[in-house]
Amino acid sequence: MNILINQSRGKKMSIQQMKPIMTFNVISDLHVTGWENKFNKHFEEALKDLNEVNPQAKALCIVGDMTESGRDENYERFQAILDAYPHPETYMVLGNHDVRWLEGGYEEAYNCFMKHTRMPHVYYDKWICGYHFIFLSTEEALKDEGRITKEQLTWLKDKLDEGADSKPVFVFLHQSLVETSAGSYEVDGYAHSGHPDGILEDRELRNILSEYPRVLFFTGHTHAVVDHPQTVIKKEGIYYINTASVAYTLQSDGYGEDNGSQGLCIDVYEDEIIIKGRDFMKKTWPMTWGIDLNEGIVLSK
Fold first, then answer.
1. I want to staple 174 with a disulfide (CB 3.0 to 4.6 A). Which of 43, 64, 100, 267 is the partner?
2. How large is the greatest C-alpha to C-alpha distance in the chain, in angstroms?
3. CA of 36: how far to CAs of 78, 85, 108, 219, 293, in Å?
4. pTM to 2 decimals?
């Protein structure tokens, strides 16, 4: 598979010719349950496939909905599958399925997440190979939407200031902002027709992110296929990236096939990022994008 990027500068490079500074994997929407089903099997296959195609990955970032309902038995099965296969250091955030429908509300969801994932908090940051990774989570047990508190927004601003240099910053949150990456548009039913989705503090979050021109914002939730040409877009100065779904994918505006299992492999270079959409069931790369950080453009192949 070849991809040409930086076409505006006449620079030609192929994936085979380049050695990234670092590489990492991003998946979301696993929906693991306490009993055997295809969602659990898809997670197993994804882990095996990622280890084969990207064994040098420095991180596995899971963008929410690790579980179907956030209960102990779901997390126990999730952790058992994760532990059964080789994988890099793993980082997780809360999705709406991880917090809704619990009798104990958000407190129970928080406690289960902290106990089973051993993350430092529901929002936190990590420096990996000299690059800043920032992980955000909802702080309210809503059905589909997410709540980002003022405290978390202030913390995010402070953390972004820490990494305000020429390097990209990778930010992760389960819910997409409205009309950003694939699956979050009116044609998809996102945040329209009485079906609320997204983040209640959508505008506040956009305003903060837009101050930092090299933010790559990864979101899941929509299950939209990586085949979609708007899986990676630039809007309001932010690079928005849809992470598809391991459990099952959904068509978006006629693109792709339902019930697939997909995710992303990310290669990081000095001034470029290559984002490779991976189909774990078909063992193919349906779509690849190049982000030229100097020119501020997104190119697809």
1. 64
2. 58
3. 11, 17, 24, 27, 43
4. 0.93
- Alpha carbon distance 116, 81 (integer Å): 13
Give strand pairing partners of 128: 131
| Dist CA 36 CA 220 (whole Å) | 23
The answer to whether 183 and 144 are in contact (CB under 8 A) is no
Place of tokens 């192949």: 301
Residue 8 pLDDT: 36
Q: Checking DSSP bridges between strand 169-173 and strand 131-135, what pairing results, if any?
A: parallel
SS3 208: helix
Name residue 288's beta-bridge partners.
276
CA dist 298 and 280 (Å) reads 24
Question: How far is residue 243's CA from residue 30's CA, in Å, rounded to a whole number?
Answer: 11
Segment 46-60 shows an average pLDDT of 98
CA distance 125 to 278: 26
pLDDT digit string, tens, across residues 156-184: 999 999 976 789 999 999 999 999 988 89
Give the Cα separation of 265 and 202 in Å (integer). 27
With bands split at pLDDT 50, 70 and 90, how would you rate the model's confidence at 196?
confident
Half-sphere exposure of 274 (CA within 13 A, CB side): 24
One-letter amino acid identity for 111?
Answer: N
Look up residue 11 and give its two tokens.
Answer: 């620079």
